[in-house]
Amino acid sequence: MKIVAGMFKHETNSFSPVPTRWKDFGPDGPLYGADAYRAFRHSGYSLSGLLDIAEEMGAEVTVPIAARCLPSGPVERDAFERLSDILCEAALGCDAMMLDLHGAMVAEGFPDGEGELLRRIRAARPGLPIGVSVDSHANFSDQFMNNCSVMPGYRTYPHTDMPETGRKAGRLLRDVLEGRLNPVTVAARVPMMPDMVKCLTDREPMSRLIAAADAAEAAGMPCMTVFTGFPLADTEDTCMTVVATANGDAEAARAAAQAIADLAWSLREDFRSAPFEPLAESMERAAAMEGPVILADFSDNCHSGGTMDSMAVVAAALERGLDGILAGPICDPQAVAEMIAAGVGATVTLDIGGKMPIPALKEPLVPLRLTGTVRTIALGRFTVEGPIFTGMPVDLGRCVVLDAGRVTLVVSEGRVEALDPLQYRIFGLEPTRYRYIVLKSKTNHRPAFLPLARGHVDCTGPGVATLDLLSLDYRHVRRPIFPLDRSNA
Ligand SMILES: [Zn+2]
Hints:
Strand content: 15-25%
Order of helices and strands: EEHHEEHEHEHHEHEEHHEHEHEEEEHEHE
Number of domains: 2
Helix content: 25-40%
Bound molecules: zinc ion
Shape: globular
């Protein structure tokens, strides 16, 4: 038995103008063969669990490619074609395939990236048994469903069961290969885009859907997944989808999936967050707190496709009269070049941020004009010390520290989410000496930065990583959909 295992994962923020290139799918592009196997064999990824089962089966296993990239804009056509060519070619010489895919990939020309990939593989090898481990944020399509054998998704968010889901996909595929499972899959769409924070699986309302899926499997359904969807990928498949795989009995799958879909729909108001707080009110709350206070500008974090050049939170802080603000890194290569040309010690007046056009935002990002002194010019290189992303190399390119009175800014050529206070300390800036720290992050800053702060305020600024779906200009999602069409969905 020859099994090909592989990974091609991207959660695409289709509103993001940040490009997703071939070289972004790994340290220097994707990993191949033995390198891919070594990197992921014993890892926290689904590929690790898929390989557990393939090796348990005594199969001859090859891993032609492993490619993963943080969320960003649509995958460039060239990268998509090259990756899918490698997997299609590998499919020719095997008896079965095991894939670690996300399910919310948008490629240039192919809004349903994984569906197109699987369609091509099956076109090259009709009927090839394929087991896929899928992220629960998948925008699940019929094309995906119709071109693979089994497709379990994660049960947890935050995702702590990736290897386990890989093993589940592997075991289901083994059942297919050994004739115990005749998989018949049915998907029930729920016409809503739930708020991502309401999809945390250890609390209501999402915990109720997970419990229902667990109960269906305990009652004998081979596989039942609730895909919450990824609302920042604007495609016609974007929504919550309940997917059931039965053993030969399509009607049983349909009934079980629809029952959970109906439950989800009845809970739709619970899948909405409270109205988002205007920035002026967030600044009012921050002003009343003891410092240091973290102002988390989550809508602009690059781990969700953010451009990291929104100045809205800094502008709101200055407007409120806040003092002692440390902010950045703000990604603005043009401002970096201007300040380097001026030199250390120079007084400059310039526009910072708001330079990348983002047509999808109803309220555009705008630059902030600041006057200040260029304090430091340096390369922004360091290695994350943890406690999360430990050992990850960071390269922000050339950076400039601008002292603009009430605010001190780090302006960079590159982007990184706020993972480590080193992003300030390497420039001689000690974050605990400031009263306010503006970070571009939703959750990943917490382990390293919360111990430094006394207060924390989530700030709903504009940006492509926003949780406020009503601020985005949706063009492709099937309408009506909740909450965009609240009244008639
Ligand atoms: Zn996910």
